[in-house]
Design brief:
By secondary structure, the protein is α+β, with helices and mostly antiparallel strands. The strands form 4 sheets. Strands 1, 4, 5, 6, 7, 8, 9, 10, 11 and 12 form a 10-stranded mixed β-sheet that branches. A 6-stranded mixed β-sheet has the order 15-18-19-17-20-16. Strand 8 and strand 9 (188-199) form a beta hairpin. It is globular and about 105 Å long.
């Protein structure tokens, strides 16, 4: 034991001295190992610090209260909830009954003697220095001890009077206001002074103001209703402090009254899943806490860590081989003085141990420092404040041990290779005869065949995508194991090459021990890049083929559905001002009730309308009746399929496109037809003659008219709908003109002029604008429009049709750059080792009169050969997983298509097409540009002249 300890101690001292002497190589390997450790350690510190403890989470949600009560809005029926109070559902199943809705008297469910603090929120458009900003208004007495912890005061003081508010720092930044400024709301002239600034620790980007209860929301609601606009929706919860708190049993008793409870006691001591009734219902299981979720997370983590360690080992291994080769005389002296092969292995392995320990310490310390320094940036990115800075020593130690293990694994092959050198060969600098293993390529071939079979089975037979991934990974590892043999095959091409590339290729083949790891590292990086780029290019081709334009190319829309279209004129002007408009078509919508009513109704004094589809024009598969149920179930699959293919009532044509309004009814003029590309003169004439232009045959009745029903009693209409009867309401019948043919109307099913709508007794309000453009607006014009619309504070729905847009382009470019950097790095390491090996040859070439440029060109070709071999093998290996995944997707889509056809739910006769596209541009860049760039870079950084010395005897 003592001998073993002293031998390793001496080996470590030798390795530490060698690492200090070769600072450049040591720094390179240390950086390769330390950077992943830095990233993983920083990620662990960030994750743990941002993941709040139950007590911290309770303080931010509840302040000093014991619970937060909130109406579940199910009309007081009993409910089940999860322990966190985030989800709930009625105890009773309402499959064939109306879903319960309605308020509950929450205060009556609060235990007597409790301290209660009301927390009310609503939204309003507040005045800012830039215009208007939709902001959440909160009424919570922040000075009450119960609310302590929910908000963090940053500047100023808490509001105390009815005309004082405090605002979040994000709102002040977005609005241009500051503490001391005054603000008001649209349709509400009462001024409020900002007396403080605060933040919500869990939502740093919240635009919110807070004031004392009753100071803003109630008077604002009255002012808005007086202006004829719908009242803002309010949300009320109750912070409750009670003796003894609220246990899980107490929460369940309160749930029986239709109230959800977020309890501090339950957050600190949550019940088991078996004690949560919600999780016992079908479809409500707690997957996040299930063994399947944990196993999936662990499998994903192990896969990522394993692949990262493999890549680092492949990159760092040749670097350790460089050190061992340059220290071969020293290692020979150790052997000459009685050192055994185990001592040689210990010295080289100690090099990996020393670098691994240094990388672990460096990466961990830098991770702690950088996380502390970047904490404000991380918090801003994650949109929440950290809890306590949580350092888990065991987790950081485990991550650090990965660095040590990676260093040792990377040094194993160089250690074994160095220990096999004879003492005489090490002292004289002779290379000896090196033979590559004959077993390893066979193992690699077996792994390749087995992995390919597994991936093929997963893509063609099984439904498990994981099999495709596992088989592809096994096949790639097989190719890595076969790399030495494949490098030998590349050597046969040297007979057709000029002198310098022939020497480079011969040197790479003769020294496969250093060439193979570098080629394998390039192979792994390129294979991953090719797999992802092939898959994404195929998905892009499929998306481009399936893409359906929602508007004609270059057409833009902007709609405002709130406040009766009050901001529509300003929106139209902003679009006209910022976009290169060719034709502008202003459009309106039908409004039932007060002018400020939303299109869907629901508010007091507000209704809605329906475009009537005559019963004779309804598709039998979708026509509901008094008996209820699904009408399509009455037909056989063959009947359903026949209706979808032959019955015009069941075909989807004019109903396709973007959603505009109920029934696709739009109020506009002939300019809209021009924007939509409808150039039929008869259609334009019919519109001018006061007819409603219909693009949907199903809307026109036997009398040649379209019926529009105005519904004022929403409650009665909902009850009639539940009973399968038509909703009561006034029907206006408008003469119609059916546009001939299958004109694509992009969601517009019916169009009439404002004069026609007025003549039919329909009220209209501005809705928005359609514009066609001379050219597609550039990024600057779009940003200016977004800025102008943001100043209005309205919810403006904008859309610009620019054709199919490839969202993967930047990702493909990033992956190609990443693969190129890894390739150049690995090839550069292999080139450094080659130069160490070939120094004697270079001296001989110089001695016999070779030009100085030979050294430079040979170095460049050595680097280029390694890069080219790795790129070629990686490109071939990367296609397997991508093709396998695409075949799996094709199989799933075809099965779904065949099932729909068999059951009569689809009339489509063409099977889905799932293309497999090879990204030739990316492959060309990898196959040509990357090796060429690596060669040129190596040639540039290599000195033309070396020191002339005596040629060592071999």
């Amino acid at each position: 034991m003592k001998t073993w300890f002293h031998s390793w101690r001496a080996a470590i001292r030798i390795a530490r001295r060698d690492a200090w002497r070769s600072k450049g190589r040591s720094a390179l390997v240390l950086a390769m190992i330390a950077l992943p450790i830095l990233g993983v350690s920083a990620l662990d510190l960030t994750y743990r610090s941002s993941g709040l403890s139950p007590a911290e989470r309770a303080d931010r949600q509840l302040g000093a209260a014991d619970a937060r009560f909130r109406d579940a809005d199910v009309n007081g029926v009993p409910i089940y909830q999860d322990p966190a109070g985030e989800t709930h559902t009625p105890v009773k199943d309402y499959e064939n009954e109306p879903w319960p809705t309605g308020p509950t008297d929450v205060p009556r469910t609060i235990p007597a003697g409790s301290t209660v603090l009301t927390d009310t929120t609503a939204s309003a458009k507040l005045t800012t220095t830039h215009g208007l900003l939709m902001t959440e208004v909160r009424e919570l007495k922040a000075s009450d001890p119960v609310a302590r912890g929910i908000m963090t005061l940053l500047q100023g003081r808490l509001p105390e009077k009815a005309d004082e508010v405090m605002a979040t720092s994000h709102f002040l930044e977005a609005s241009g206001l500051s503490v001391g400024s005054t603000l008001s709301a649209r349709n509400f002239d009462r001024p409020y002074r900002i007396v403080g600034s605060y933040e919500l620790p869990d939502t740093l980007d919240a635009d919110q103001i807070n004031t004392v209860p009753g100071a803003f929301i109630a008077p604002y609601t009255k002012a808005v209703e007086k202006a004829g606009l719908p009242a803002p929706g309010t949300s009320v919860s109750y912070l409750v402090r009670a003796s003894g708190g609220f246990t899980w049993n107490s929460v369940q008793k309160i749930n029986a009254k239709g109230v959800t409870v977020v309890s501090r006691a339950v957050m600190l001591d949550p019940p088991a899943d078996s004690e949560v009734p919600l999780y016992q219902k079908d479809g409500w299981s707690n997957y996040d806490a299930s063994p399947g979720a944990d196993a999936a997370a662990l499998a994903s983590l192990a896969t990522v860590v394993g692949l990262a360690m493999l890549e680092i080992c492949l990159l760092a291994g040749p670097a350790f081989a460089v050190g061992a080769r340059r220290s071969r005389r020293q290692l020979g002296l150790v052997g000459a003085n009685g050192g055994a092969r185990s001592h040689i292995r210990a010295i080289v392995l100690s090099g990996g141990l020393v670098i691994g320990v240094a990388a672990a310490v460096t990466g961990t310390v830098l991770a702690v420092i950088l996380t502390l320094l970047l904490q404000p940036v991380l918090e801003s990115t994650m949109n929440q404040r950290f809890g306590a800075f949580d350092v888990r020593p065991l987790e950081l130690l485990g991550i650090a041990l990965l660095a040590v293990l990676t260093g040792l694994l990377a040094a194993i092959v160089p250690a074994v290779t160095a220990s096999r050198q004879t003492v005489l060969a090490s002292l004289t600098g002779r290379r000896g005869v090196r033979r590559s293993s004959r077993v390893l390529p066979l193992i690699g071939l077996a792994a390749l065949l087995l992995g390919g079979a597994v991936a093929l089975f997963g893509s063609m037979v099984s439904e498990q995508v994981a099999l495709v991934a596992a088989g592809s990974a096994l096949a790639e590892l097989g190719v890595v194991a076969m790399t030495p043999a494949l490098v030998g095959l590349f050597g046969r091409t040297g007979r057709w090459l000029p002198l310098s590339p022939r020497l480079a290729l011969r040197d790479a083949v003769r020294n496969r021990g250093r060439t193979a790891p570098a080629v394998a590292a390039v192979l792994a990086a390129v294979a991953g890049t090719v797999a992802v780029t092939t898959y994404m290019a195929s998905r892009e081709a499929q998306g481009r083929a399936e893409y359906e334009a929602s508007l004609p190319y270059g057409v833009a829309t902007a709609f405002v559905q709130e406040e009766g279209g009050r901001d529509v004129p300003a929106v139209r002007d902003a679009v006209q001002r910022n976009f290169p408009v060719d034709v502008r078509a202003d459009v309106e919508r039908v409004s039932v009730g007060k002018p400020g009513c939303p299109p869907w109704g629901g508010d007091p004094g507000c209704g809605r309308y329906e475009v009537i589809v005559p019963p004779a024009n309804e598709c039998p598969m979708y026509a509901s009746g008094p008996s209820g149920g699904d009408p399509s179930e009455k037909f056989t699959p063959e009947q359903r399929r026949k209706m979808l293919t032959e019955d015009w009532r069941c075909k989807t044509s004019a109903s396709n496109g973007m959603y505009i309004s109920d029934g696709g009814l739009v109020i506009g003029d002939a300019k809209l037809l021009q924007v939509l590309g409808v150039d039929d003169p008869a259609t334009v004439k019919a519109l001018a003659d006061g007819k409603i232009v219909s693009f949907n045959r199903a809307l026109v009745d036997t009398k040649g008219a379209v019926g529009i029903k105005q519904i004022t009693d929403i409650v009665a209409a909902d009850k009639a709908s539940e009973a399968g009867r038509p909703a009561p309401g006034k029907v206006s019948s408008v003469p119609a003109y059916l546009v001939p043919g299958e004109k694509k109307s992009y969601g517009v099913q019916a169009l009439m002029t404002p004069a026609t709508a007025k003549a039919a007794g329909l009220s209209t309000v501005p809705m928005g604008v359609y514009v066609s453009t001379d050219r597609l607006p550039d990024s600057e014009q779009r940003q200016k429009l977004d800025g102008d619309l943001a100043k209005l504070g309205s919810n403006v729905e904008t859309q610009l049709e620019e054709g199919y847009v490839n969202d993967y382009g930047i990702i493909l470019l990033s992956l190609a750059i990443f693969a190129g950097l890894v390739t150049i790095g690995a090839a550069g390491i292999a080139t450094g080792l080659a130069q160490a090996d070939a120094e004697a040859d270079l001296k001989t070439l110089a001695a016999v009169g070779a030009p100085p440029r030979v050294r430079r060109t040979l170095s460049g070709f050595q680097c280029g050969v390694v890069a080219a071999m790795g790129v070629v093998l990686g490109s071939a290996a990367g296609l397997l997983p991508a093709i396998g995944l695409r075949l799996t997707e094709e199989r799933d889509l075809i099965r779904f298509y065949e099932q729909n056809v068999a059951e009569g739910w689809s009339g489509e006769l063409t099977p889905p097409h799932v293309p497999i596209v090879i990204p030739w541009e990316t492959l060309a860049g990898l196959l040509v540009a990357v090796p060429l760039g690596a060669a040129l870079l190596a040639a540039l950084v290599t000195r033309s002249r070396g020191a002339l010395a005596r040629r060592a005897a071999t």
